[in-house]
Structure formats: structure tokens, C-alpha cells
Amino acid sequence: MIVRAAIIAVGLTAGLAASTSAGQLVYQPTNPTFGGNPLNGSFLLSTAQTQGDGVKSGQQQTPDLSGLNSALSNLGNVNQGAGSSGSSPVIVIQSGQVPTNP
To answer: What 3-state class would DSSP assign to 62?
Structure first.
């Protein structure tokens, strides 16, 4: 009885292994811009147009860039001497010279 069940199990396993053969997957793009079929272009365009612009979710806040704007505006102002206002001086690297940390 156990031998018969083992033979059936081996037979089913061999049968399933033989019938499941995989081929190589080949990527085929849909969008004609990326090499897909040119006939898909009108379908993709009409699908995108029917979806519309969509709905923005959540609060759409713009980031506060005031600190960045002030930092960028001070790039041209190099304070020399001990009376600097806390900003680091701009280091200009000339050919062959290694700058030191101020």
C-alpha cells in the first residue's frame, strides 16, 4: 500500500514537472514612444484623455523657501575680516591649490 502510494506520488510529480516548462520572458512595451506598436498610440491617448486631470488630495502647500532664498542671495557677499555676520566665506579654488577649512 505504501509502495503503491509512493509510485503514484513519483508519477504525478514527474508528470507535473514535464508539463510545466517555462519560456523566456520578453519585454514588449505598449507605449509607441518607447518602442511599442504605433497602432497603440491613439488608444493610449484616448484613455489618458478620458481619465482627465485627476483630483489633488490633501493640502497642497508650497514649501517655505525663505531660508534658501536668503542663503542664495548671500552667495555673492563675502565678508572679510573678523567682523563677519556668521556666514562662511566663499572658497575659490585655483589651479593646483588645496583650500584649508576657515
So the answer is: coil
Percent of the chain as helix, strand, coil, to the nearest 5:
40, 0, 60
Is the Cβ–Cβ distance between 88 and 75 less than 8 Å? no
- Judged against a pLDDT cut of 80, whether residue 35 lies above it is answered with yes
Residue for grid cell 593646483? 96
- The pTM (predicted TM-score) of the whole model is 0.32
C-alpha cell at 91: 572658497
Instruction: Give residue-wise pLDDT tens across range 74-99.
Output: 766 555 555 455 566 666 666 666 65
End-to-end CA distance of the chain: 88
